């Protein structure tokens, strides 16, 4: 019997984005900010890849490249196995986004029904006479009552606004959703409800998610795969269970040591992060983490480590990975 191998919903290969940074007035020319510096990953239908790392490591830039809101400087994006060379209307429909700040992402002078009708018109989702029913259905799917349709965003709570943002994303039947810090702007008391909603929708609609977060405890709960970014590179990628049971890269270990919730992989305390992230416009030679790494040796200043397998689908980019205790 032949088995059908499914293509990932999303594949990114060697994505690169370097921003030009103007030097101060007395210096010549421009500097490059290497925001995203050659990263690759796949996400299958119904699965979540979490992208984690400190502020400025390139998470949102990666999201914008995938959404085609920024021009690539290098690399390729494949959606359902097909190379994406331009953002066609069908591409714009299939890839949706849930924003960090639901208030900023909803047009303030439009009622919810107009906010939800607009993408249906743009993407010609259903005949005009069926749009009202479709809007009621998506409101129900995100746990909102139908009377919400007649309200303005400022008449809603933060949680309700984020539900409207999610309703807008799912209303056009996407296959893939980028969630960039989807609950970090919300009150702690309603974060779990929104996360559970995203998980239910994923299960019911077989959605693939790229989930961007600073919050490792949340990532442990929602993701299937974790990718750790440091200064534009993925330094570790692993199935979520493996990652939290035993992160391999010194940076990941330090990140986990800063987490409030105990994880098995943090039972042998690693030193929490010290020092500032180096500048993405002036990267250290060799390993970009070496200026903060307690295990750095001479080789780390000369040769940049590449991602390599440490078993079980677990990849890490560190010269000393074999010496690091689980
Ligand atoms: N339009 C831009 N022009 C120049 N530099 C930019 C631009 N957008 C982002 N950067 C730089 O690229 C790097 C990555 O930024 P990005 O917003 O992707 O980080 P992030 O990981 O999402 O951070 P945060 O967790 O704070 O949201 C940073 O050094 C940032 O200053
Ligand atoms: S390659 Fe060297 S500097 Fe980089 S994480 Fe590994 S030990 Fe630390
Ligand atoms: Mg960001």
Keywords, separated by commas or semicolons:
326 residues, alpha/beta, four-stranded antiparallel β-sheet, 11 helices, 12 strands, globular, binds adenosine-5'-triphosphate, binds iron/sulfur cluster, binds magnesium ion
Summarize the structure.
With 326 residues, the protein is α/β, with parallel strands linked by helices. 30% of the residues lie in helices and 22% in strands.
Description:
There is one protein chain. This protein is 30% helix and 22% strand. With 326 residues, the protein is of the alpha/beta class. The strands form two sheets. Strands 6-7-8-3-9-10-12-11 form an eight-stranded mixed beta sheet, with helices on both faces. Strands 2-1-4-5 form a four-stranded antiparallel beta sheet. β4 (74-79) and β5 form a beta hairpin. The mean pLDDT is 91. Bound molecules: adenosine-5'-triphosphate, iron/sulfur cluster and magnesium ion.
Bound molecules: adenosine-5'-triphosphate, iron/sulfur cluster, magnesium ion
Approximately what portion of the residues adopt beta-strand conformation? 15-25%
Overall 3D shape = globular
The N- to C-terminal Cα distance equals 40 Å
- Cα-atom radius of gyration: 21 Å
> What share of residues is helical?
25-40%
Strand arrangement within the widest β-sheet reads 6-7-8-3-9-10-12-11
Q: Helix and strand succession?
A: EEEHEEHEHHHHEHEHEEHHHEE
Major sheet details? 8 strands, mixed
Which stretches are poorly predicted, pLDDT < 50 over at least 5 residues? Answer: none
- Mean pLDDT equals 91
């Amino acid at each position: 019997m032949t088995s059908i191998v499914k293509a990932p919903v999303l594949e990114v290969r060697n994505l690169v984005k370097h921003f030009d940074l103007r030097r101060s007035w007395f210096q010549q020319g421009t500097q490059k900010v290497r925001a995203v510096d050659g990263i690759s990953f796949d996400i299958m239908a119904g699965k979540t890849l979490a992208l984690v790392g400190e502020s400025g490591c390139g998470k949102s830039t990666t999201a914008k490249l995938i959404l085609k809101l920024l021009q690539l400087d290098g690399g390729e994006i494949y959606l359902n196995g097909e190379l994406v060379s331009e953002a066609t209307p069908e591409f714009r429909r299939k890839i949706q986004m849930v924003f960090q700040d639901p208030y900023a992402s909803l047009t303030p002078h439009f009622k919810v029904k107009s906010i939800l009708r607009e993408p249906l018109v743009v993407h010609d989702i259903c005949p005009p006479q069926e749009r009202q029913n479709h809007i009621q259905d998506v409101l129900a799917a995100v746990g909102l009552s139908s009377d919400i349709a007649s309200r303005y965003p400022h008449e809603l709570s933060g949680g309700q606004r984020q539900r409207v943002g999610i309703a807008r994303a799912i209303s056009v039947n996407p296959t893939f959703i980028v969630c960039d810090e989807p609950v970090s702007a919300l009150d702690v008391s309603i974060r779990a409800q929104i996360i559970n909603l995203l998980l239910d929708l994923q299960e019911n609609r077989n959605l693939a998610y790229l989930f961007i977060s600073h919050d490792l405890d949340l990532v442990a709960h929602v993701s299937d795969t974790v990718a750790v970014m440091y200064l534009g590179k993925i330094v570790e990628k692993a199935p979520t269970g493996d990652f939290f049971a035993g992160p391999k890269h010194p940076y990941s270990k330090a990140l986990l040591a800063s987490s409030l919730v105990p994880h098995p992989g943090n039972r042998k305390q690693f030193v929490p992060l010290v020092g500032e992230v180096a500048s993405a416009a002036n990267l250290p030679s060799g390993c970009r983490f070496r200026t903060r790494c307690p295990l750095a040796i001479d080789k780390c200043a000369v040769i940049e480590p590449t991602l390599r397998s440490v078993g079980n689908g677990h990849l890490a980019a560190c010269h000393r990975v074999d010496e690091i205790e689980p």
